[in-house]
Amino acid sequence: MGLEASVTQTTVNQKMPALYIGHGAPLLLDDPVWSSQLSSWAKELPKPEAILVVSAHWESNPLTIGSIENKTPLIYDFGGFHPKFYQMEYLSPGAPHLAARVRALMSDSQHVDHQPHRGLDHGAWVPLKIMYPDADIPVLQMSIPTFDPEKLMEIGRRLAPLRDEGVLIVGSGFLTHGLPFLKEFRIEATPPQWSVDFDMWAEDALTRGAVDELMNYKSKAPGMPYAHPTVEHFAPIFVTLGAASQADVAPTTTIDGYWMGLSKRSFQVA
Hints:
Blueprint: H1 3-7, E1 18-22, H2 32-44, E2 50-59, E3 64-65, H3 96-105, E4 113-114, H4 122-131, E5 139-144, H5 149-159, E6 167-173, H6 193-208, H7 211-215, H8 217-220, H9 236-242, E7 252-255, E8 258-259, E9 262-263, E10 266-269
Parallel strand pairs: 1-6, 2-5, 2-6, 3-4
Antiparallel strand pairs: 1-10, 7-10, 8-9
């Protein structure tokens, strides 16, 4: 059944939210606290017809969509973890109709490329394995084509109609990601001050709907550049905010706190 056909079975007023989630690392799968938070969050949402993921771990310009086939393979884009993590599977259905909709929604100036053999990276499959363990929902991953916040907001705005079609849009990153500056690699490690400062600033800006401040995080946010020495884990937030019905309305924070000293703050927009 195609996306268009299946959408007719979704309650018309059951508009899907858009999410920004911290995806941690494969070790998240062994963390009962964070796993429970993600699982509970998913159970509170309407079941999606399909899921579109924009992950920090795929940068490609022009905007590119990955595999649209059933049982999309996983990318084990990490090193030094227990062998079990390299044997995990997430055999989700393909999403060719969603891929077609993404193409149709982009502007004429936004070329959409296709890498048919590109699987799901851990920014996609780790949280989905917890949130939707049955792997029975079509999943499509698309790249981050730019780090320009305004351009990412525009991509989010163009994708927003998918929410009315039962599609869950997920920006997957990490609200702070200063890995080179961490001194402790324990889940319960005390967060460094730069991580706390950035997290509190982001919480305040989100609560006030101060999108302009968020877009100027490099110069406005305390804790920089330590919180994001590279910006790919913050960038997906702008796709999520762009997909909001009103970007300047405070989102609903669903998860907060720290993991290995990094902020795992996650939220959904209406």
